[in-house]
From TrEMBL:
Keyword terms, alphabetized: Cell membrane, Membrane, Transmembrane, Transmembrane helix, Transport
TM stretches of this protein: 7-26, 70-93, 100-122, 128-149, 179-197, 232-255
Stored InterPro entries: MetI-like, MetI-like_sf
The protein's name: Carbohydrate ABC transporter permease
Entry-linked PROSITE patterns: ABC_TM1 (PS50928)
The organism's taxonomic lineage, starting at the top: Bacteria, Bacillati, Actinomycetota, Actinomycetes, Propionibacteriales
């Protein structure tokens, strides 16, 4: 019991380390220029909306938002479907070199993404997909991490249920859709959210494979906003950053209980 106050103090300290920069971003987005450069720092803003208006006008954020939404929705859907089908095959089907192929999937998780940038770019360029949604989405539809999470979770499900579905004459797709996925909702939501955040925040690939403002995404749009406004307009830059951050932060807050349940379900069964 005596250690509990110390635990609370440590938790508050750790929370401050993580939430402090987020609060500073949020407050700066609502500050006027005089408050931003005030010393000592002003921790409570005057709540002006001018920074958001300036950010929206300084760069075509409406187009950036549309592009990011299309890429995130389509990319997440394709990546999750691919991961679910692959994970089901590794968990329930028998085929030659199954373990070797799964070890190759695990090996793909250890390869830095930047290693594949040049081969992917050359492939996309040869297909004429530069500056297109196909070029932005298709090269990233495979996810070793999502496949690993789903496969490990499928292995924890009771085999009696899938065996009963097979006895009833259900094929693999029907078993997956009617039996396995309903039992895997927390993990599935976890994979969807993690994948969506990854797609939404992707910066390097959209920067490389697009060359016009009409195809840029929100993270790249922040770079354009910074170049437009320079280092002086931090209120405008922070307002633009908040516009990029807010949708994924909202989704995470809504789905956090599923994420915790999905991660704790997943595991170590091999």
């Amino acid at each position: 019991m005596k250690a509990r106050p110390i635990q609370y103090v440590l938790l508050v300290a750790v929370a401050a380390v993580f939430l402090g920069p987020l609060y500073w971003l949020l407050s700066t987005a609502f500050k006027d220029p005089a408050q931003i450069y005030q010393w000592p720092p002003a921790w409570w803003p005057h709540f002006t909306w001018e920074n958001f208006s300036l950010a929206w006008k300084a760069a075509p954020f409406d187009r950036f938002f549309l592009n990011s939404t299309i890429i995130t929705v389509a990319g997440t859907a394709l990546k999750v479907v691919n991961a679910v089908l692959t994970a089901y095959a590794f968990a329930y089907l028998r085929f030659p070199f199954k373990k070797i192929l799964f070890f190759l999937v695990l090996g793909a998780m250890m390869v830095p993404g930047h290693v594949t940038l040049l081969p992917n770019y050359l492939t996309v360029a040869s297909l004429g997909w530069i500056n297109t949604y196909a070029g932005l989405i298709i090269p990233g539809i495979g996810s070793a991490f999502a496949t690993f999470l789903m496969r490990q979770h499928f292995l924890t499900l009771p085999t009696e249920v899938t065996d009963a579905a097979a006895v009833d004459g259900a094929g693999h797709l029907r078993t997956l859709w009617r039996v396995v996925l309903p039992m895997s909702q927390p993990m599935l939501i976890t994979v969807v959210v993690i994948t969506a955040v990854e797609e939404w925040n992707n910066f390097v690939w959209p920067l490389i494979v697009t060359n016009t403002a009409s195809m840029r995404t929100l993270p790249v749009g922040l770079l354009i906003l910074k170049d437009e406004e320079g280092l002086a307009a931090w209120g405008t830059i922070m307002a633009g950053t908040l516009l990029v951050l807010a949708p994924m932060l909202l989704i995470f807050l809504i789905a956090q209980r599923y994420i915790v349940g999905g991660i704790t379900q997943g595991a170590l069964k091999g």
